[in-house]
Design a protein that fits this description.
CATH topology of the largest domain: Cyclophilin
Radius of gyration: 20 Å
Strand content: 25-35%
Number of strands: 13
Number of domains: 2
Largest sheet: 4 strands, antiparallel
Distance between the termini: 50 Å
Helix content: 10-25%
CATH class of the largest domain: Mainly Beta
Order of helices and strands: EEHEEHEHHEEEEEEEEH
Strand order of the largest sheet: 1-2-4-3
Shape: elongated
Number of helices: 5
Structural class: alpha+beta
């Protein structure tokens, strides 16, 4: 009897395959997806790039996929052998955030919606440790899990046409940081001066999937001082 695959396998383009796991996002699966990507890129030379989602991997190939019958089974065998691959130690990043009203246009309205005080909202948001699940939507946009349940909320009924770079948002069960100016539908509760996406660098985004993020509340004067350092090119993000 043929072994059932641990994931669903789809060919969505002659050169693109998708693997999907039928489960809720969780830390164990995230670790497996990170390790599986590295193993695939090492063992399957025809795979040129992999894009990760919460519970999926999209595999881009440099040639058409002709071995559809055997390919899923080969991937399954590799997935089962992941214990033989070492996992890179993930980093912890502390992100300073100004939660003052001028930097947080939706802080009061969201606190009212959640029936808590603004101080409680900030305290809850900074007390959690968040994990980077993947990067998408915008270059350098981190999808973070770990939002306290008390802060879960619906996205805005009417998205904003312009969200400032560095804005911290909450939407659904997630929190995130807008790395560049863009439209957005999440509730904006603060702002960071940190450079989150620097396209001229070898690694434009400072964090990777699996890393942890902690938010640190700072004053407006601290924010402006860090913003000045950013403008001078002296502000650096370093892991804890």
């Amino acid at each position: 009897m043929e072994k059932a695959l641990p994931f669903r396998f789809f060919i969505i383009h002659p050169k693109v395959a998708v693997l999907e796991w039928d489960t809720e996002p969780n830390p164990r699966l995230l670790k497996l997806l990170i390790g599986f990507q590295k193993a695939i890129l090492k063992e399957f030379k025809e795979v040129s790039q992999i894009t990760q989602g919460y519970c999926s991997l999209m595999l881009y190939h440099n040639c058409e996929i002709h071995y559809i019958n055997d390919y899923p089974n080969s991937l399954c065998l590799l997935f089962d052998s992941l214990s033989h691959y070492s996992f890179t130690k993930q980093k912890i990043w502390q992100i300073p955030v100004c939660y003052e009203e001028s930097m947080a246009p939706d802080l009061k309205s969201l606190a009212n919606q959640l029936n808590i005080s603004t101080a409680s909202l900030v305290r809850e948001h900074t007390s959690a440790s968040y994990q980077v699940n993947f990067i998408g939507f915008l270059p350098g946009f981190l999808y973070l899990s770990g939002l306290p349940k008390v802060l879960e909320c619906r996205r805005k009924a009417r998205p904003a046409s312009r969200v400032d770079r560095g804005s911290i948002g909450i939407g659904g069960k997630q929190t995130g940081i807008y790395p560049i100016e863009s439209p957005g539908g999440w509730h904006l509760i603060g702002k960071t001066p940190y450079p989150l996406f620097e396209p001229k660098k070898k690694n434009p985004c400072f964090a990777k999937a699996g890393d942890s993020i902690q938010f640190l509340s700072i004053s407006k004067s601290d924010y402006l001082e860090l913003e000045k350092q950013r403008a001078q090119g002296t502000l650096k993000i370093k892991p804890l």
